[in-house]
Amino acid sequence: MAENEDFVIVGAAYKKQVRPVSESSVWRRLWKRPLFSLLVLGILLLGCIMAESIMNHHPSDFYLANLNEPPNTEFYFGTDSLGRDIFSIIWYGGRVSLFIGFSGMAILTCIGVFYGCLSGMAPAFLDNMMMRTAEMLSSIPNLLLILLILSIAGKPTPISIAAVIGGTSWMSLARIVRSEVRQIRASEYILVAKSMGASFPRILYYHLLPNFLSAIMFVVVSSISSCIMLESTLSFLGLGLPVEVVSWGSMLSLSNKALLTNSWWVILIPGVFIVVTLLCITNIGHYLRGAVNRRSSNL
Amino acid sequence: MLRYIGKKIGIFVIFMGLLSMFVFILARLAPGDPLLSFYGEGVERMSTEEHLAARQRLGLDETLPVQYIRWVDNAVHGDFGISYKYKQPASVILMALLGNTLLLGTVAYVSVFVLAVLLAVFCTLYEDTWVDRIICKMGTIVYYLPPFWLGLLLILLFSVNLHWLPSGGAYDTGRSNDLLNRLQHMILPLMVMVTSHLWYYTYMIRNKLLDEVRRDYVLLAKAKGMSGYSIVWHHCLRNVAPSITSIMAISITHILSGTYVVEAVFAYPGIGALSIESAKYHDYNLLMLVVLITGALVILSSLLAQTINECLDPRMRSEGDSIWQKMKTL
Question: What is the model's pTM?
Fold first, then answer.
């Protein structure tokens, strides 16, 4: 305001000039809108973390006298065909599902960002080769690649599942990072950093990453959803986690038996938990991306 | 023209070579004796000499590159090894099921894109009205329903409780030529395929169209007195056609892997259910073949889409980029 005080503006329609509000930060945007999604996701997370104090039955107990019981006051969400209390194991299983979602995202982001930066900074020949390799890998359906690796790897654990999912779905992120880096790499500050002898990791961390972070935010956040979805699909197919390791996906692997006995709660409830989690995460991701501003339509 | 075709064939051959190398190395990394996949349980009864002789006969004592070349040589002659689980040549088993998958995949593919274009045009015409907003919200929710779970719910509703439709298979036993019967079995898988893919592509096409209706020629057409419907249908849609074919090329991978899950849920006899089975039983020969066939299918169709694009818009030929790089602009 200080520089404006020298001027005294007179006139009929005098209006004090208001500076345009600068673009709100990621955190402010987060604070502004998806409160409901955050709230629901927070409740889910809290429930999973404090599973022990919420559940009213032990997750590894088999209530053989109460197989396939519909929801009632004793078993809030009913029991499955092994006699486990669904209300108790759903919180317990959420830990595994969310763990795979978040760690899969972390692995995928690390590989994707590193590969994308390397390819973006590389000379044209190498860049072309690296991108063609990624292109080839992404042309095989993701699920098939995972099947191939899982059938070769040993007994699946949550960590190995997360690693396989993360290790096979980084290609689209790498592509976005690469095209962003291609745009940034010509700028002077990269040249300065290079000529001052900065190493590649340093340039990556201090100069590239902050500049394309907002561009990849949506992809990174929604990759949590896709990791959770893939885990549940794999476990349902019987290739992911075994039934003993409770996750939302492996709970659904009992659903073929549930179809025979028409016990809808075994299928419906874990699925609803998955869908609600995915929708909350996506909603948050959408706000991180920010609104698309379009001119008014010519139609 | 000849050079053009030659280039495409060259890309295909290089791609298949790299893919097969990748798959071969991955399969050889597998723990366990590769002999098992040729002789089954018989391996355990073999004496040491027999074992060595068998290894030599199959060339397993050679170095990896030599083994690979031998494998390619066999593969070119149509010999992909024996399926461990079915005790039959892998190619025979695969070919029997490929048709079912292609049928389901193609019908799903066509219906997804016909519906996606129609829905996208509809959304563009009613942009930002309550109809468009409701469709967008619904689409997002439907997109995040896990396809296998949606399939289970549909089976629960339509087969178990209402008894309207069969819960699985491609046809009732002995009625494989009955078209009506096949159609009945395809309704539920198709519903899952369409609902789980529709919104993704609708959204992409809708965004393209929304950018397109902000171009100046739309204003001119409007000033001439054309209706909004005919502007979008006759002009805008034509201009985004190259983007739609690019999207269609990329989507083949997604829709194929969608088929795999759906086949497993509905016990539909196709290569998807087969690949999941073989992953469970560590049937590498079969799994390798499925990966290769899928890869070939995907690259062939993406080359086809590229060619179509270049016919639609000759400007693209000069760029010489792959379709994937063009996707950046989407």
Answer: 0.81
For chain B, say whether A83 makes contact (Cβ under 8 Å). no
Rg (chain A; Cα; Å): 25
Q: pLDDT per residue over A175-228, tens digit each?
A: 888 888 888 887 888 888 888 888 888 888 888 888 888 788 888 888 999 899
Tens digit of each residue's pLDDT (9 = 90 or more) over A256-276: 777 777 778 888 888 899 999
A16 to chain B nearest CA, in Å? Answer: 34
Question: Which chain B residue shows the shortest CA-CA distance from A293?
Answer: B211
Closest by CA to A263, choosing from B152, B134, B133, is: B152
State both tokens at B243: 């983007």
Tokens of A97: 């599902």
pLDDT tens for A87-109 read: 888 888 888 899 999 999 999 99
CB A53 within 8 A of CB A299: no
Any long-range contacts for B86-93 (C-beta under 8 Å, 24+ apart)?
Answer: B86/B283, B86/B286, B87/B40, B90/B285, B90/B286, B90/B289, B91/B289, B93/B274, B93/B286
Check if B31 contacts A (Cβ < 8 Å): yes
C-alpha distance from B166 to closest chain A C-alpha (Å): 13
Q: Which residues of B213-247 are buried (b: 16+ CB within 10 A; e: fewer)?
A: beeeebeebeeeeeebeebbeebbbeebbbbbbbb
Q: Torsion-angle region of residue A16: left (phi > 0), alpha (psi -120 to 50) or beta?
A: beta
Q: Which domains does chain A have, with CATH numbers?
A: 62-297 (1.10.3720.10)
CB A136 to CB B15 under 8 A? Answer: yes
The verdict on B116 touching A (C-beta cutoff 8 Å) is no
Whether A162 and A107 have beta carbons less than 8 Å apart is answered as yes
3-state DSSP assignment of residue A85: strand
